[in-house]
Automatic annotation (TrEMBL):
Native source species: Flammeovirga agarivorans
Transmembrane helix among keywords: yes
InterPro entries from the UniProt entry: LipoPS_assembly_LptC-rel, LPS_export_LptC, LptC
Source lineage: Bacteria, Pseudomonadati, Bacteroidota, Cytophagia, Cytophagales
Statement: the UniProt record of this protein carries the keyword Transmembrane: yes
The protein's name in its UniProt record: LPS export ABC transporter periplasmic protein LptC
GO cellular component, one term: outer membrane-bounded periplasmic space
PROSITE patterns tied to this protein: PROKAR_LIPOPROTEIN
PANTHER family per UniProt: LIPOPOLYSACCHARIDE EXPORT SYSTEM PROTEIN LPTC (PTHR37481:SF1)
Gene coding for it: lptC
UniProt GO molecular function: glycolipid transfer activity; lipopolysaccharide transmembrane transporter activity
A Pfam family recorded for this sequence: LptC
Transmembrane segments: none
Keywords: Cell inner membrane, Cell membrane, Membrane, Transmembrane, Transmembrane helix
Length: 182
């Protein structure tokens, strides 16, 4: 009986070991120290970006992970406030459940429960994913969007805008518009 259990155990180990790939030392090092492992992790961060001592924006996050390739992850939420450079007042406020920054494309992507309030325009944008290209200023999504103003609620799919011309934006496929004003 014990001999039979021993043979079944050896046969099982042989079958399972044949199904998995053997990792080389280099592959093992990439797994333990590679691009999937952060080079730097910070908790409960708050950073203030200024230019010539004038506040530009403030970023808060519960966790920030930075990688060797320059990429960053914010897996537990992100909160960004942008300031008006002339008055110092808050001009916009963005919150999301998660965010990533991809260094080679200078692209920020915030996702899951994204809410962007633009205090200057009196608007609020809600979507699941929002991309921002730091180099070009392009802001876009292909997901459903809801833009709420004092007078109107517009829903659609996909949006294109540019940080350098915030007055103009385009909703690619408008699904509905409701006027809520007087």
């Amino acid at each position: 009986m014990i001999k039979r259990i021993f043979i079944i155990a050896i046969a099982s180990m042989t079958l399972f070991s044949c199904g998995s790939k053997t990792k080389t030392k280099r592959e093992a090092r990439m797994i333990s120290l590679g691009e999937d492992t952060p080079d730097f992790t910070a908790f409960d961060i708050e950073t203030l970006h200024t230019e010539d001592a004038v506040p530009q924006n403030k970023l808060k996050a519960k966790v920030q992970m930075r990688y060797k390739n320059g990429n960053e992850r914010y897996p537990n939420g992100i909160d960004i406030v942008t300031y008006d450079t002339e008055t110092g007042d808050e001009s916009s406020h963005l919150i999301a459940d998660s965010a990533i920054y991809t260094a080679d494309s200078t692209m920020y992507t915030v996702y899951s429960n994204v809410v962007l309030q633009d205090y200057k325009k009196g608007q609020m944008l809600e979507t699941d994913t929002l991309h921002f290209n730091k180099e070009t200023g392009d802001i876009f999504t292909d997901d459903h969007v809801k833009i709420t103003t004092e007078d109107e609620i517009v829903t659609g799919k996909g949006m294109r805008a540019n940080q350098n011309n915030p007055e103009e934006y385009e909703i690619l496929d408008i699904e509905g518009s409701v006027y809520v004003g007087d």
